[in-house]
Amino acid sequence: MARTRSSGGSEKLIDDKLDGTKRAVAPLRAKVTKKARTSKSAVKIESNDTPEVPNHGASYWLLKAEPDTRIVKGHEVKFSIDDLKEMKVSPWDGVRNHEAKKNMQLMKKGDLAFFYHSNCKVPGIAGVMKVAKEAYPDYTAFDTNAVYYDPKSDKNNPKWFMVDVEYVRHLKRMVPLTEIKEYAESELKDMALVRRGRLSVAKVSPKEWDFILNLSEQKGEE
DNA sequence: GCCAACGTTGGC
DNA sequence: GCCAACGTTGGC
């Protein structure tokens, strides 16, 4: 389950969230004083009421995609960090698992995510991206010709959602799954990637995030 | 390409 | 609403 390079498609079919969970609080840009734009009736954002999360309220995630071409129902499926780099921004479509979907619906614009390469010679974390658009209906589920068409998803009551992600960077060095597993009983013992291998969209704790970034900076010469 | 782990489906 | 059968994920 992963994003695939989708064949064209009307990207802005539906732009609004349909689940009504809109949250007014923008990711807090640290100390920058928020100037109300033209209107004094603009909502005042006072306090960071999510103090438990560092990095100013942003969260970290991990999303899996398959970088190698594979044929699924007659369609080529493939999406790598290089593809994302080329596209700059892309919808992350094709997630067909409820827990993964739920995680995508929790993503906030500006959150950071690891791009994980799965089902390939060397599975592992290849790069960093950020959430460019929060969850909205996955229109590929409505498209009878799409790989991940789901007849049970109705435009008026969408079953599947996606976010848009934006390329940030490749890691200096890809961090392979084998290496991550070396810490499965220590620093990364609670990591979803380790404990819930099949979940394609998972949360990453700030500590795990930093730990993996550190790994990627070490033994860098390849 | 095998297969373990785990998610989903459907009969009862 | 249990649970066996079935399907899928994804590392190896």
State the distance separating the first and last CA atoms. 30 Å
Shape: globular
Report the average pLDDT across residues.
80
Side by side, the strands of the main sheet go: 4-7-6-5-1-8
Percent helix range: 10-25%
Structural write-up:
The strands form two sheets. A six-stranded mixed sheet has the order 4-7-6-5-1-8, with helices on both faces. The longest helix has 12 residues, at 206-217. The protein has 222 residues and is α+β, with helices and mostly antiparallel strands. It has five helices and eight strands. The structure holds a DNA duplex (12 and 12 nucleotides).
Helix/strand layout:
Blueprint lengths: L59 E6 L4 E3 L2 E3 L3 H7 L1 E3 L6 H9 L5 E6 L6 E14 L23 E16 H5 L10 H4 L5 E4 L1 H12 L5
Parallel strand pairs: 1-5
Antiparallel strand pairs: 1-8, 2-3, 4-7, 5-6, 6-7
This protein binds a DNA duplex (12 and 12 nucleotides) through loops.
Task: Please name the defining characteristics of this protein.
222 residues, alpha+beta, six-stranded mixed β-sheet, two-stranded antiparallel ribbon, 5 helices, 8 strands, 17% helix, globular, DNA-binding
